[in-house]
């Protein structure tokens, strides 16, 4: 049975609907919470069969005064996973960390909340399983700039990178593909920054709920296939 290591950066932002897909496939996962008392970033030696880096609420990877406290350590961890060919899934800030680990960049932007759609730009994305068009819910500070050699798989309605791939088994999603409305509600309550049209956006996220769950089915099928999380562990 495979085991995936998950790094969580704020209490409200977790795997969401992704948990159901991992559990349904018998893939175990464990959270590491460096923001809690006694919490820390896992060592590369203790990372299981893959690493998932979640979003962060108000933290970013480029904006002064809002840098994730464990940013450097997580970039080193993600770089070590890339070197060892361990699968990575980066979501939100996690995608920024993956980009930095792969010698890409991150652009400074304000904290943003948006709900719309992303569009696939490569037919073979995620083993052909990435939907042509799928919901894109973003609660994130700063914007990812993947390295030139990265493969962009999808873009959002503004033309920015929504999904990208590094090598055979590392993926960055700027939106959370398994998001639940309650997660965003708690993230909004946690921040002291004003977010334009947050009420309207929450309503939109609620309306997108069924489409988010539907799109996650092929997305997880493609991710699990390319990460090898369903393959038998050697004994």
3D structure, described in words:
The chain has 235 residues and is of the alpha/beta class. It has one domain (3-227): Class I glutamine amidotransferase (GATase) domain (Rossmann fold), CATH 3.40.50. 29% of the residues lie in helices and 24% in strands. The protein contains five helices and eleven strands. It has helices at 18-24, 71-83, 93-101, 181-190, 198-227; strands at residues 3-7, 28-32, 51-53, 88-91, 105-107, 112-120, 133-140, 143-145, 151-156, 161-166, 170-173. The strands form two sheets. Strands 2-1-3-4-11-10-9-6-7 form a nine-stranded mixed β-sheet, sandwiched between helices. Strands 5-8 form a two-stranded antiparallel sheet. Helix 2 packs across helix 3 and helix 4 packs across helix 5. The radius of gyration is 16 Å and the shape is globular.
